[in-house]
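Propose amino acids for all 142 sites.
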């Protein structure tokens, strides 16, 4: 409810741009899903520019027309993805899954870079691939 009120307060000022920085990070999945629909409704009704900052790849694909993927150390734009999928977005569609996999491939490199910096000689790329690999069947790695 607090997030709904915060969004309503921001919209009451009738801004040209709405900045949402990790607005659903602390929410349970049901509430997050409900607020995703509300944000989409707000966008459809107002056509306001919404800059949505999130670490959730699936969320970014669900809500965005364009994803700006940031890198680490030094921070910067790694790639910009146009999201040309029809709405409502279907997370199980081949196009959705392909975009998610493409983004994870770049993030995997970023994660590996940070892990190598932090772990040095203790870094094991085979074990680390469990964190960001597209094959998340843990039974294959045991």
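Proposal:
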């Amino acid at each position: 409810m607090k997030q709904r009120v915060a969004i309503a307060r921001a919209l009451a000022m009738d801004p040209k741009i709405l900045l949402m920085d990790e607005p659903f990070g602390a929410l349970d999945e049901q509430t997050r899903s409900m607020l995703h629909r509300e944000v989409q409704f707000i966008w459809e009704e107002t056509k306001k520019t919404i800059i949505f900052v999130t670490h959730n790849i699936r969320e970014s694909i669900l809500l965005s027309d364009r994803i700006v993927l940031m890198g680490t150390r030094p921070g910067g734009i790694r790639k910009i993805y146009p999201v040309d999928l029809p709405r409502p977005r279907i997370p199980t569609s081949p196009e959705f899954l392909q975009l998610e996999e493409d983004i994870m491939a770049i993030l995997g490199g970023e994660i590996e870079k940070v892990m190598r910096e932090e772990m040095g000689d203790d870094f094991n790329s085979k074990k680390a691939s469990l964190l960001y690999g597209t094959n998340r069947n843990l039974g294959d790695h045991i």
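Residues 94-119 form the longest helix (26 residues). The chain has a mean pLDDT of 83.
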